[in-house]
Design goal:
Chain lengths: 225, 628
């Protein structure tokens, strides 16, 4: 496994005093190192800051680091080592939880690159549809209130139809997201300039805000049905 | 002159770690043997210690386990059972439960339930500590050395307060609790389903009072929990209650009176209902049969078929299926993808439960291991890992409930979502709202709902000692860490100065550290020896001191100071005291000590006066010598 130098900076090992080598464990005395502040998840897992991630490979890394960090194996160690094990395990778990999910991974990258959390925004081509959908939801609510069985059935049918349309839309958004992942990775690989990278990230940020809007919409409709 | 022996000091830190299943109905302890985990049994071969504690204030008598359970019917007011349902709860949380048990609740139970038992008040962690101490003693006897370290299991769906209460109980019992482990996860360790193969496993755990479902992925010796769900107030007790309610209703229509108010008759009925429930696991019908005495309507006999029983409990069993589906959804799996289903907990003996689980997962569940013992066996496996024995297996568990903080308008902002692998952490940045503000209040909650009012309050924190600055300038980073026990710790740091920030914690439920310390001192009375034996020893020790001092007074200036009558009275009282010491009654010894004190008080005062006079004389002499 690749261990990246930024993980601990160039700090000296708190146990043996020698240069720790920047890894999870001291290169000299092999004891577990405290976590440096501001470590990012990609670096911690020894990954480049790219968006296409090999799932099974990531799981393998997660399992093998778990076996090295977990507090279970430090019960009789010093307080300091126990704390380091706890910190490293929790960081590992946080990193794995974030990076194994494509959407969370993209959101995390955006945050690292200085983007604020994107607000939910309706995709422009969906605005009319959203208006229509809200009407249908209201109709369903009204029908429920009146206990109008036929009305409920009708409104439900319309919403279910709309739902399958939205799911299709979601699929389209995911495909475009995946395209942007490739574009980002290529920009990283080719050493593209800041402007080009920013263009990709801007589009990604917008796409994610559309996606979370559609997702919330789908959830609300499902709940009402 | 009490002699306190602190058993906590100077014990060896290394040594055995045992696994304890602290159950609603029964508890047991296991260890890792040569050939695998084994349950520690009593002389009669029994593994289970009924989770019942009996306390008789008048006699200072404390019983745990089977002996306590036997007294439930004869002395129902002096025994506590199913205490696990009350762990980490305030009285408002368990109103319904309290309606079904004969326990007296002391005032001031809002944050921690307090059971009134005779002259004393006990909290759930204290009652649990008595059970744990019994198990600790059983293990210590088995190994011939004191066992002081343990892994204790809890339902996976236990919240922070319930876990803390369990850890407090261990502490009160003189145990170092190395880890709180989730019951279904422990069970999966015990089953040790072919470890080389990759498998998706569902553990369905329906115990005496709690229900858990956990979905695990097993791969290369790693037991990774993908999702967990459950209900910490659903179990065999509720099945019993549905039978009991049936009988209570029928008896009421017959006699016009509700039996609830006669705790002894109620316990007889409860016992008969449990017996019928057990029979219905093997037979097509059973009879609830008992004699309630003439005032309660005499003999009661009610035949119940398995069909009727299943109709009665179908709602309860249905309540376990929602969490099963939710756990599958959270794990991102369909029921069809599950390779193995494991049944844990005594209530999974009910055929209807097995049938429903079979239907949901579409496969035959595993029932090979004793469902009462499998959790303790798994705890022993985890204990072995923690004591450095095995590194083949590793458990990666999750937090069952989302963690959030209160934001404007009483809305929850989630910071660690449910089913996150633990340890897990999150950080939040805080700043001040008004100029020169030196404190910030933070309210931490647990739960899935949007509003603070619908979640479980964990604690309120105050960040204190923020240097006075214009509003918005201070930057305080608060870090939340859920450790491998599923228990939260919070630290705070001033980002600009990099100083640790002091935090004042007010837990919403549960006991403070000070209260625990106080209980530790209180519980010394019950430590190791039988309480009456201790009282006898104390009384004899004090008697000895009194006898010695009084004899000395009599042999000294007594002739000069008091008359023969008075001296004879003192000698008489002394003789009586000596006789009492030869006996076993500590109260009699105390009485005779008092008598000696009374008869010799006059003499003691005279001796004291003389001593003071002598001292003054000495001082005067020395002052003269020093020329003052």
């Amino acid at each position: 496994m690749k261990e990246v130098a930024e993980i601990n900076g160039t700090a000296a090992c708190p146990y043996c005093g020698a240069g720790a080598g920047g890894g999870h464990f001291c290169s000299g005395c092999e004891r577990i190192q405290p976590v440096a502040r501001g470590v990012d998840y990609f670096a911690f897992l020894g990954l480049p800051r790219k968006l296409m991630v090999d799932g099974p490979e990531l799981e393998k890394t997660f399992y093998s680091l778990s076996r090295r960090f977990h507090p279970d194996y430090f019960m009789n160690a010093s307080d300091r080592e126990r704390r380091a094990s706890m910190e490293r395990s929790s960081l590992l778990n946080d990193a794995y939880r974030t990076l194994r999910d494509p959407v969370r991974r993209a959101e995390y990258l955006l945050a690292l690159e200085g983007y604020k959390e994107a607000e939910k925004k309706a995709p422009p081509d969906l605005l009319e549809e959203v208006f229509e959908l809200n009407m249908q939801v209201e109709e369903l609510k009204a029908a429920k209130k009146m206990a109008d069985e036929d009305g409920i059935e009708e409104a439900r049918g319309a919403l279910e139809e709309a739902l399958s349309g939205l799911n299709e839309k979601m699929g389209g958004l995911d495909a475009r997201l995946s395209g942007l992942f490739d574009a980002w990775d290529e920009a990283v690989d080719t050493g593209a300039g800041g402007d080009e990278r920013k263009k990709v990230l801007d589009r990604m940020s917008e796409l994610l805000s559309h996606r979370s809007y559609v997702r919330a919409l789908v959830r609300d409709i499902k709940e009402e049905i | 002159m009490p002699i306190i022996e602190l058993s906590m000091t100077g014990r060896p830190k290394s040594g055995r770690v045992v696994g304890i299943d602290l159950g609603t109905t029964n508890s047991l302890v296991a260890y890792m043997g040569e050939g695998g985990p084994e349950v520690i049994r009593d002389e009669a071969g029994g593994a289970l210690v009924p989770s019942v504690v009996y306390y008789d204030g008048g006699q200072g008598r404390l019983l745990v386990g089977e002996e306590a359970r036997e007294r439930l019917v004869t002395e129902p007011r002096k025994a506590i059972y199913s205490v696990k349902r009350f762990m980490g709860m305030g009285s408002a949380d368990v109103e319904e439960d309290l309606g079904l048990v004969p326990f007296r609740i002391a005032p001031g139970s809002e944050q921690v339930i307090k059971f009134q038992m005779g002259d004393r008040v006990f909290t759930p962690p204290e009652i649990s500590a008595f059970i744990l101490r019994e198990l600790k003693e059983r293990a210590s006897k088995f190994f011939g050395e004191e066992v002081t370290r343990a892994v204790i299991t809890v339902p996976a769906y236990f919240n922070d307060a319930q876990r803390q209460a369990t850890r407090d109980a261990g502490h009160l019992a003189g145990l170092e609790v190395l880890r709180i482990v989730n019951e279904p996860t422990a069970a999966s360790l015990a089953y040790g389903i072919d470890r080389r193969q990759e498998a998706l496993v569902a553990v369905y755990d329906l115990g005496g009072g709690t229900f858990d479902i956990s979905i695990l992925k097993l791969k290369d010796g790693i037991f990774e929990v993908l999702a967990t769900n459950g209900d910490t107030h659903l179990g065999g007790d509720d099945i019993d209650n549905s039978l009991i309610t049936l009988a209570l209703d029928e008896l009421e229509s017959r006699t016009g009176r509700r039996l609830d108010h006669d705790p002894s008759a109620f316990q007889s009925l409860r016992r008969a209902a449990i017996r019928a429930k057990h029979e219905l696991s093997d037979s097509d019908s059973a009879v609830i049969s008992l004699d309630l005495g003439r005032e309660n309507g005499g003999e009661y006999r009610r035949e119940i078929s398995r069909d009727e029983f299943e109709r009665l409990i179908s709602g309860l069993v249905e309540k376990t299926l929602g969490p099963c589906r939710q756990a599958l959804r959270d794990a991102g799996l369909d029921a069809g993808q599950i390779d193995e289903v494991v049944m844990v907990g005594g209530s999974t003996r009910v055929p209807y439960v097995r049938q429903k689980v079979r239907e949901v997962f579409g496969r035959e569940p595993h029932v090979e291991l004793n469902p009462d013992e499998v959790v303790a066996l798994g705890a022993a496996v985890q204990a072995d890992i923690l004591s450095g024995g095995s590194r083949d297996l590793l458990l990666l568990d999750v937090t069952p409930l989302s963690l959030g903080i209160e934001t404007m308008g009483g809305v929850v902002s989630k910071i660690i979502s449910r089913n996150s692998t633990i340890p897990a952490s999150a950080s939040e940045m805080f700043t001040t709202w008004v100029d020169n503000q030196t404190g910030i209040d933070i309210h931490v909650v647990q739960g899935e709902r949007e509003l603070v009012a619908d979640c479980r309050s964990l604690a309120k924190f105050t960040l204190k000692g923020i240097p006075p600055q214009p509003a918005g300038l201070p930057r305080i980073e608060v870090r939340y860490l859920i450790d491998a026990n599923g228990i939260l710790t919070v630290t705070a740091r001033d980002v600009r100065t990099n100083q640790e920030q002091s935090i004042e914690v007010k837990p919403s439920y549960g006991l403070s550290d000070e209260q625990i310390e106080k209980m530790l001192l209180d519980s010394l009375e019950f430590a190791e020896e039988d309480i009456r034996k201790r009282q006898l020893i104390d009384a004899r020790n004090e008697a000895e001191t009194v006898v010695r001092a009084t004899e000395k007074a009599l042999s000294g200036q007594a002739d000069r100071l008091v008359g023969e009558d008075e001296r004879a009275a003192i000698r008489g009282a002394l003789d009586e005291l000596r006789q009492a010491v030869a006996g076993e009654d500590h109260l009699l010894i105390r009485e005779k000590i008092k008598r000696v004190d009374e008869t010799s008080r006059h003499l003691a005062e005279l001796i004291m006066d003389n001593a003071v006079l002598a001292a003054l004389k000495d001082r005067n002499a020395s002052e003269v010598a020093e020329g003052k």
